Amino acid sequence: MRACVPLIVAMLCGLAWADLYSAPTSCHGRCREAFDKHRPCHCNARCQEFGNCCEDFESLCGDHEGFSHSSDAITKEELQSTSEKIYRADTNKARKEDIVLNSQNCISSSETRDRVDRCPEPLFTYVNEKLFSKPTYAAFINLLNNYQRVTGHGEHFSAQQLAEQDTFLREIMKTAVMKELYSFLHHQNRYSSEQEFMDDLKNMWFGLYSRGNEEGDSSGFEHVFSGEVKKGKVTGFHNWIRFYLQEKEGLVDYYSHIYDGPWDSYPDVLAMQFSWDGYYKEVGTAFIGSSPEFEFALYSLCFIARPGKMCQLSLGGHPLAIHTYTWDKSTYGNGKKYIATAYVVSSAQ
């Protein structure tokens, strides 16, 4: 797979994808700026008072301690080494013959707001659905429809839905991917037992936080993997399995892409534009062909090691960055920690 020319040029010029695209709706480089009525969201000192801050205001402009201190900080080299081990351990990933992708038209970053469907065919021509019978895939898929996608509506889970969360965590912890992650974090003195690690993952990903006025209307898992709609736009939705299943049902319409990663096997990375049941996603990055445990492991690693920051990894010898976001209006750690959301930012040849 090859990256589109516009993004390759940007990466060679030293620009991260967040710099290239996210500025209008991000606080990156805008903390404490003067109020500008033409901005879609704000990063000034009073935006919280008026409820119009950009979503990443807290993580980029707030005063947070994070989880790493100088005495036990995880280095960039350790992150890259561990991500390579996780990459090699993902035996549940799709094989090349398991997925036939039809990426079609590649557009420039300046065209992402046009909302024009430039791809007449679906993104996925074929997926070997035998993948979905694997325990981690099946447990993951059971979770996807447990949420109300529109923010502002509180989430309430049945006993069965709570049990499905536990089943998913149990299944992924059986895999070499998650054992590799736990081994690294245990060695770093972050967790003393697998049970402690699992308990923290449950709170980290399934603990509820508030995106709007309603208490507990979102979670890291819902945002990243299932997807949400906020103010008429798609937020999150960074998972290829969810995309495929929704496209198969006719609920997702693939429009175009602006980036196709350098990997010649799965997992790969695609940054795309699409409509989800009438709601538009301007740029959505997702791994393609990865196992659920692989994504869960990398996002968790970055959230623990680089909360609210850019996390530089390496997969198959290619660099990749993941940005995590913290959210302090949550049930995670009784307000002592922050809830996880994350997405793939960029990769470069």
UniProtKB/TrEMBL annotation:
Localization, UniProt: Secreted
InterPro entries (alphabetical): ENDOU, EndoU-like, EndoU_C, SMB_chordata, Somatomedin_B-like_dom_sf, Somatomedin_B_dom
EC number, UniProt record: 4.6.1.-
Reaction equations catalysed: ribonucleotidyl-uridine-RNA = a 5'-end dephospho-uridine-RNA + a 3'-end 2',3'-cyclophospho-ribonucleotide-RNA
Any Pfam family: Somatomedin_B
Cofactors, names only: Mn(2+)
PROSITE patterns according to UniProt: ENDOU, SMB_1, SMB_2
Record CDD domains: XendoU
Domain EndoU: 75-348
Keyword Metal-binding: yes
Span of the signal peptide: 1-18
GO cellular component terms listed in the entry, alphabetical order: extracellular region
Keywords noted in UniProt: Disulfide bond, Endonuclease, Hydrolase, Lyase, Manganese, Metal-binding, Nuclease, Repeat, RNA-binding, Secreted, Signal
Record keyword Transmembrane present: no
Record-stated family: Belongs to the ENDOU family.
Protein name as annotated: Uridylate-specific endoribonuclease
Species this chain originates from: Daubentonia madagascariensis
